[in-house]
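Throughout our pipeline, every protein is held as a single compact record rather than as scattered files. The record that follows is passed on verbatim for readers who wish to inspect the format:
___
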Amino acid sequence: MNSGSTDTPVWKQQRASSLNYLCTAPKCYSMCRSSLLFAPIRRLLRLRCRDCAHPHLSHSHTRHEWVEVIYSQTSVAEREKKRWETARDEKENTEADIAASERALSSLNHAMGEAMDDLAGLVEDYGRLSLAGGFSKHVEKAMRLLEERAMDMEKKGVSKARLNNMQDGLDVMGRKLELLIKAEEKGHKGM
């Protein structure tokens, strides 16, 4: 017997090839012998069956026989317990997936922040180098690339903080580009 199911014996009448004398008294599943097929009702009222001791009025002649059938039933509580356990396992798996996703997103945000800081530093270094020579065209190209990158990030739904950080870097780079262009113009006039 399974822990979640119960095997219940049930008595049923099943079709038979011969005529039988079945007791129909509660909890009696006897197939009795009878010679009272044509007995008067008065006699049936007084007499009891020799096989099962119930009154003959609790019997019938029929082409059936008693058969014990075993029904296996899963209890409602066990089915509900299994459904609850399945739901709990799914919830735990979902929570674990969410936690892993949040850790990965946090790690990516951290890496992106560091990369943006590195980029800002490189832009600053490049700006300083360009003051020494004619690099304004290179800085303009770099700024256009960074502006396109910022638009792409905005389309992808990057956080407002990241976009603001990128825009701040572009603004600083723009001011330095203006200084660079002025310096180059002065340098050309001085030559």
